[in-house]
Amino acid sequence: MAQIESIDKQTLLFSIATNGYDRIFKDCLNSHQAYANRHGYKYIAFTKSPPSGISGTNSAWLKVAIILSALEKGYEHVFFIDGDALIYDRTPPISSVFCDDQFIYMSVESSGRFNSGVMIVVNDRKSIKFFKQLLLRADIPTMFLPASDRCLYENGHVINLAKKSSIVKIIDPKWNYNYNTVLLNEHDKEYISHGRGTWTQKPRSQEQPISMWRSLSLRMTQGPRYFLLDRLLKFYEREYEF
Ligand SMILES: [Mn+2]
After folding, report:
1. How far is the CA of 83 from the centre of ligand 1 (A)?
2. Whole-number average pLDDT of the chain
3. Could you list the residue range(s) of the whole structural domain that residue 55 is in?
């Protein structure tokens, strides 16, 4: 157990790679573990699926439930990273982005919209409130958002809430560098490469977007996503210790 005690339990880095994503993005998950080891963070890749399965959309919303749960458990910092994001060896510790009075750190794409594939969160009453509000939106279809905020899964709600929040700080695009990011200078090397060259390997890239009626009828049969996420969270809390 001595080896576990040496880990800084104050920072949780995690990724969610269900439905075989852990095999497709093995190199990415390995890079997360290596980064966590370098900086003394606890790392968990949530890769198992519950017996009843988990959809891509619910896997995406699950990150919100896990971030909130980890903050409530008392982790000082929570760093979520997408399974298709690779962390380079040169990447500095997350403390390098921290500043006073802001508790959520994300990059924006060239459109100016937040990308929720990399989210660094500092535990504070205000960040807990933010993720509670976000989770309450799990049942609100994205089409109820202004057109400019609509995005895949929970990302639209992240954009919509974050742009109005004073505790969200925009960090350097190096932290979440993808095809939609403004090009960096040649010498300005990125820290995290997200989704580049791997998009077509994703099973969900063939998934068709579902209509509002389909989404509502799913809610009628499965019950509110809010409660489904609570059941999923309990499964992941049992399977992984955090
Ligand atoms: Mn991604």
Report:
1. 6
2. 90
3. 8-235
